[in-house]
């Protein structure tokens, strides 16, 4: 017996920032669930590997490249996706980056304060890219009267930390951006939600021993005492894109092992 209401087979999904890490995990989850996926990255290396993995399991994947923080590249990505797939059911905005620097150099510290360029870079990567994706795909979804947007935020959207002003502010901004878009588009049948992952190290970016050590030490800070697996964010994304979530919009869903509810 199966629950068809969770089915996303045949959906056309555009995943912006899916060449590695959480984006790749989301792409694999959608492909395993039977969706056709377009994956984008700044360069072709990662997205080509993701496409090969998805093709190997019998899925359909369109690898694309471009700078998701710019209108021109985002318009091109959306145009190529529509030309290949005909329509877009779900947009996932998953580009992200961080920098650990204070706003201004602190007394007694040798770490310089953030530059204007660094601030704008992190805010653009984490927040402006979601605006660009929604700006470019929005008219298509609104005209169809259906669609779904999933913005990948972070648990930092719930709580600010020292040395993380640009990242935390942009992730908090993404949560509010999601709420705004959800309200603007709800009357036209388009939903918008966000996912806020906690600690999800990429096994491909470290040795097996390093990943194991990271996992083993997680109990010091994470209530569920382990780090997340990339595919787990994908499972939540698949739910949010499915008919089962048809009454869900404007929400930011934490998937962090309990970190966001933990008190010092």
Secondary-structure map with pairings?
Blueprint (H helix, E strand, L loop, with lengths): L11 E5 L4 H12 L3 E6 L2 H13 L4 E5 L5 H15 L4 E4 L22 H29 L2 E6 L12 H21 L4 E8 L10 H9 L13 H12 L10 E4 L9
Parallel strand pairs: 1-2, 1-4, 2-3, 4-5, 5-6, 6-7
Helix pairs in contact: 1-2, 1-7, 3-4, 4-5
List keywords for this structure.
single chain; 264 residues; alpha/beta; seven-stranded parallel beta sheet; 7 helices; 14% strand; globular
How would you characterize this protein structure?
There is one protein chain. The chain is α/β, with parallel strands linked by helices and 264 residues long. The protein contains seven helices and seven strands, in the order βαβαβαβαβαβααβ. A seven-stranded parallel β-sheet has the order 3-2-1-4-5-6-7, sandwiched between helices. The chain is globular. It starts with 11 loop residues before the first strand and ends in a 9-residue tail after the last strand. The mean pLDDT is 94.
Strand-residue proportion: 5-15%
Can you tell me the residue ranges where pLDDT is under 50 for at least 5 consecutive residues?
none
Percent helix, as a range, is: 40-55%
The main pleated sheet reads as:
7 strands, parallel
Terminal CA distance reads 44 Å
State the order of secondary-structure elements, H for helix, E for strand: EHEHEHEHEHEHHE
Secondary-structure class: alpha/beta
């Amino acid at each position: 017996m199966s629950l068809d209401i969770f089915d996303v087979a045949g959906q056309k999904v555009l995943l912006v920032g899916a060449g590695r890490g959480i984006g790749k995990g989301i792409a694999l989850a959608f492909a395993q669930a039977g969706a056709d996926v377009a994956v984008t990255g700044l360069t072709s290396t990662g997205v080509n590997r993701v496409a090969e993995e998805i093709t190997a399991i019998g899925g359909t994947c369109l690898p694309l490249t471009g700078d998701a923080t710019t209108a021109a590249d985002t318009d091109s990505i959306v145009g190529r996706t529509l030309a290949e797939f005909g329509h877009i059911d779900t947009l996932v905005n998953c580009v992200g980056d961080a920098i650990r620097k204070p706003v201004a150099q602190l007394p007694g510290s040798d770490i310089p304060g953030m530059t204007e360029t660094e601030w704008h870079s992190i805010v653009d990567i984490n927040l402006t890219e979601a605006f660009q994706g929604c700006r470019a795909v929005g008219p298509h979804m609104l005209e169809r009267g259906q669609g779904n947007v999933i913005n990948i935020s972070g648990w930092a959207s719930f709580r600010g930390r020292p040395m993380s002003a640009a990242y935390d502010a942009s992730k908090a901004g993404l949560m509010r951006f999601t709420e705004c878009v959800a309200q603007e588009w709800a009357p036209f049948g388009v939903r918008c939600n966000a996912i806020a992952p906690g600690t999800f190290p990429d096994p491909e970016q470290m040795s097996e021993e390093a990943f194991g050590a990271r996992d083993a030490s997680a109990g010091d800070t994470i209530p569920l005492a382990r780090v997340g697996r990339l595919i787990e964010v994908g499972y939540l994304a698949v739910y949010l894109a499915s008919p089962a979530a048809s009454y869900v919009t404007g929400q930011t869903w934490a998937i962090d092992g309990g970190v966001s509810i933990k008190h010092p």
